[in-house]
Design brief:
The structure is a homohexamer. Chain A is of the alpha+beta class. Chain A has four helices and eleven strands; from the N terminus they run αβββββββββββααα. Chain A has a five-stranded antiparallel β-sheet, with no helix packed on it. A five-stranded antiparallel β-sheet of chain A has the order 7-6-9-4-11. The longest helix of chain A is centred in the first third of the chain and has 12 residues, at about 1-15. Chains B and C meet through helix 1, strand 1, strand 5, strand 7 and strand 8 of B and helix 1, strand 1, strand 5, strand 7 and strand 8 of C. Strand 8 (about 135-140) of chain B pairs antiparallel with strand 1 of chain C.
Chain lengths: ~210, ~210, ~210, ~210, ~210, ~210
């Protein structure tokens, strides 16, 4: 039977696309399904383990918050497996500003503290807001605007998981104000006042 | 052979899920894959034809623009087929404000006039803007913020197609200002000034 | 906060598979999900714009018709985004002969003139035919035989969109008569007469 | 531990959508993903077993051939599982005429006799033909025209499997000639001669 | 503009399949894509929040472990969104025995304590084992055998997320020994000794 | 019209990702969607034909059984097409031991002899077992434990098809006993006795 085992092993081991997993070769060219697979013979258990989420992110910034992602770019073992994870740290009054993940739904689990979180549906612009305490879970459907805010008195920590190895992250403020989109086009397409636009462009490093 | 034809027809006609198509029963309960299928025997060619896009939408509103959708809710023949379509009308200075489609990519084809359109990537918040003339096409990747603006002197018309029968539409201004999301939470999660928030809530009918 | 923006940008910009988009490198090897992505830093707005559809295709041929595709091979920006587009020109009496798209559904929008279009279901071989006028839309479910015909008196123009960046196009006449499939096999598998087969092979350049 | 087992069983047994399987309720309304699931408590092993393929189909018809499908309509256990199966019987000179499966690829395995099979790509209309003997396998990519022919001297039998529970089947001859599509439209969209069209309409029961 | 907002709301609110989300009606019949959607007007924020994971599961059982799922059956808000979550509690020496999730990959995040976890590839039966400490993450590719074990001295807690709302859970021991599969068939298909089989059937409540 | 045919051919032939098919380049790096495509110009009919299944596999081994796969690694023509096939040979008393396919459902067709087959659901660990005779078909849902056994008196042969070009194969005995997973971890995670573990590790070549 030893022979048989070897035979099966042989049948499947000479190839870099496995039914089992496809650890990302990040340096090569990606494609719509993700990254190319590393040869299974080069893969070790450490490709399936990510150790960066045990430490708090640095929240000494103007949002008093930090996101530490374990997306496919940081954690190549999730390539092709349909999920990824990240850590949120929110100092008191910290906020992950209004944002979307263009390609994934999100589930948030509160590990410590309290987090007020909400999302807005496209259906009648209904708002779904809740203050979550330790152990609570909230789901944010794919592509919809949502935010997380620590209105408690201690640091809040959450684990967030996504339905894609590469969920993307589009923070509305950064999309509007942290680039060279002309103030004229931005104002016409958002109805924001010129003063407001210029003020936030200055804070976020935008030009135009 | 007639018999054979009949036999094949029989094999497949007694059932409401067809390999071929699945015209939506909009009144029943939907599910993550779309709507239940109407019985093929009840389906006629008119279920596959939509006639509402030949007429300009009414642009006498404050955005000087109109969207006429032929999504699955209006055009049940596209249910389960992975695409849908709509018509855009933009009077001079008209604008489809910054928005996303949570579940679909979009291709815009300019039928008449000139349209300045743009989208913003989540990757470094890069802006991709272009002024399109009659016959030009632009693609807006799924879930990313984008806008369309008529900065020409005549009415502009475009046909837009989507990669989903039910693409959704989340206009950022409506999501922020046209509901009961409290000004406090909104300001904290967008860094917009209180005066700006209140001004736009008033215009768009928001409360809180 | 500037720092934070930069940080986010950094996190995601060093890689050629983006959550946002994946502009095709057409020269490399494709795979079942599409083409490899170009590095985002090499991508410009022009990769998302296609300008070839503003001009009528040349209809001085025996079908008096032209198809101008903006599929992924011509329009690399749609790679991985689940849709594509094309322009149809039909001179009076012009026809896009019976054909299928092996991998996509199609929505047709009549921009000018009148088009009689139809498809045939596999379910009892039911025919769905309609004469469409300017502004009308018709959907052709994936993989089913369909045709478009200008029985009006002026040139007809349509925009067609597909549920795949690479929908394929199999025109039955070309598949039967424009290659080296032996007349014997073709006649046995279609019940067409030998004279008919030889006549159309001659017109369409087939041998065998 | 007994308790624990019961607990797990309880957690998952009160619901008709199971991660495991979803045996079709064929009488209810289908939807784009297939049919509704029967309650697992009503499911028995016989829902996963199909016994109709052991017997030769009746080939005393003008194509000297028979297809016995075990698609979801006949074999509800495959609902949602992404595959199905059928039996082909081909008497000498029997043929499964040119056809497509709009929604599935096919693999054919020759159980008995010899079968000449072929498909035509949309890419340059290339023909791929081969005479297969007992034990040979051929794959026909989704949506492409293909045929199977017994040019041997004994009955041929094949097992064909599909990449979908509901692959559909569109036989070109039936689509063209076995319905009420007007001869005029058919001739314009296929370039077939009027005599040819009328002859085959007569054989296959078509009108118009 | 108020009118416009209302118009958009109207367009999309009269239907129970939304682009945005599809909260499960658990009592109706499921289908391969999940459960039918509740009407959006009946949905509240509490449908998107799950509060059961803040409390430790009861580990006073023979595996000294507990799984508290927030799968679609317990947490209907994740229906159709491609992910779900659960809590693991492992007392010292507690174990989640060898198991698979037939339809999902898993990411485990250690909230407290130490967990030794491993999976086995089908490729040459390679073992990937690691002892994880607080904050570490490990991914278990879909369908592969894996286990989790607390070999530390304090209770261990983990949050596990899945790439499907309904991942399923097949514990090998329960599948082998906690049902009426005959000992004869089980022994022939596993090479386990009769005494071993009977011993574990007794512990786990199996018959046959 | 010849020109037109050539034009279409040209449009689509210069690229290695075709809508039609994607024959695998097995030597290059795979990715989550499968293998890169060979250039269509290098593809011949033999890429779509597999001839290895006509001959019985060698069953003179301790399981008295053989699996001859035509998965993508052996049969590159199925790459990206969503299915594959294999041949089972079972001498009298031969067995394909308890196993799963992590990424595919399976349909088994009995070509010769009798096969007792079964699978176990995760739902309450229900067993579905049946003795199949020539011509019978059984479906094994994706990811669930199943086995096949010849309890007849002649050799049994079956054709099995899968819903994926690369279904994977995890035989529980090999996963447990044919590698270097430590006996201690294995015993803790399976409740098997040390003697049983050591006995089977010896038979199957495991260490630790």
């Amino acid at each position: 039977m030893l022979l048989l085992v070897c035979l099966f092993a042989l049948l499947f081991s000479s190839s870099s696309h496995a039914a089992d997993f496809c650890v990302a070769k990040l340096k090569g060219a990606g494609n719509p399904a993700g990254y190319a697979c590393r040869m299974p013979s080069k893969v070790t258990v450490d490709d399936f383990v990510f150790t960066g989420l045990g430490v708090a992110g640095n929240t000494t910034n103007i949002i008093s918050a930090a996101v530490t992602p374990a997306f496919v770019q940081q954690f190549p073992g999730v390539n092709g497996l349909g999920l990824s994870i990240a850590r949120l740290d929110l100092a008191p009054a910290g906020v992950i500003p209004m944002h979307t993940h263009p390609g994934a739904s999100e589930v948030l689990f509160v590990v410590q503290g309290k987090i007020t979180a909400g999302f807005i549906s496209s259906l009648a612009n209904t708002v779904y807001v809740k203050t979550l305490k330790k152990g609570d879970v909230m789901v944010f459907p794919r592509g919809l605007l949502h935010f997380q805010l620590n209105d408690g008195e201690i640091n809040a920590v959450a684990v967030v998981s996504f339905s894609d190895p590469d969920p993307g992250l589009q923070i509305t403020d950064f999309a509007f104000f942290a680039n060279n989109l002309s103030s004229e086009l931005l104002e016409k397409s958002t109805f924001l006042d010129d003063a407001q636009v210029k003020k936030l462009k200055k804070v976020l490093g935008g030009t135009g």
